[in-house]
Amino acid sequence: MKEIFYHSSIINVEGKSSLLKSSYILHKNFHCRTDKNVDTMIDKLERLKKENFNRIYIPDFEYTVNDKIVTIKTPFIKGFNVATLIPQFANIIHEDIVQRDSDWTFNDFAPSNFIIDEDTEKIFAVDLQSYDYTPNKLKRESAWEMSKKINLKIFKNATLGKWIRRT
Predict the structure, then answer these.
(1) Separation CA 82–CA 115 (nearest Å)
(2) Nearest-CA neighbor of 129 among 43, 64, 65?
(3) φ and ψ at residue 97, rounded to 5 degrees
(4) What ranges in 59-133 are assigned the alpha helix state H?
(5) What tens digit of pLDDT does each residue of 108-119 get?
(6) In Å, how far are 17, 30, 87, 107, 167 from 97, measured between CA atoms?
(7) Neighbours of 24 (CB within 10 A)
(8) What φ, ψ does residue 65 adopt, rounded to 5°?
(9) DSSP letters for 33-76
(10) What strand order describes the sheet that includes 25-31?
(11) Count of C-beta atoms within a 10 Å radius of residue 33
(12) Greater model confidence, 144 or 158
């Protein structure tokens, strides 16, 4: 798995600063309960490794299986989870994910699932588990529109210092 490095610094006891590189690795565990669920996760992840989403990037990832637990290891993408809310990025997600010709695509459009890398401004789809067999484009469009309304409501309330749940 290719690490993604970010600039950081450290201050020693004399107060002098030194530059560092840092990387973050995420581990996500799926407790699958059945062998069929394990097989489904493996199939999805193997398919995803071969996919191309045009202007949407998938972080490098590895996975392991231990008993019925599938563990995905992927670099953390340091950035902003506003890609579904800003038209220049949301239009790309809509075209390359929602309107995608393939029956396989991402189906959860929560802002936290699409990160704009702070250095490159590339859009990363980071919720690998939401990559799924979703052939019905009308359902995709409906889910996209519903998600946009909910996401905007949450962020508008956040700018007013109010919290509401994503339901």
Answers:
(1) 7
(2) 43
(3) -115, -55
(4) 87-93
(5) 999 999 999 988
(6) 43, 24, 15, 8, 22
(7) 13
(8) -125, 130
(9) SSHHHHHHHHHHHHHHHT--BTTEE----EEEEETTEEEEEEE-
(10) 25-31, 69-75, 62-66
(11) 10
(12) 144
Structure tokens at 94: 């809509």
pLDDT, tens digit, for every residue of 17-65? 898 888 889 999 999 999 999 999 999 999 999 999 999 999 999 999 9
CA 81 – CA 18 distance, rounded (Å): 29
CA dihedral 39, 45, 51, 54 (to 10 degrees): 140
Tell me which residue of 142, 131, 46, 145 sits closest to 97, measured CA to CA: 131
Q: Is the pLDDT of residue 167 over 70?
A: no
Are the beta carbons of 78 and 24 closer than 8 angstroms? yes
Choose among 162, 151, 82: nearest CA to 123: 82
pTM: 0.87
What is the CB-side half-sphere exposure of residue 31 using CA atoms within 13 A? 0
Q: Are strands 69-75 and 62-66 parallel, antiparallel or unpaired?
A: antiparallel
Local structure of residue 112 (DSSP, 8 states):
G
3-state DSSP helix/strand/coil % of the chain, to nearest 5: 35, 30, 35
Q: What are phi and psi for residue 69, nearest 5 degrees?
A: -110, 120
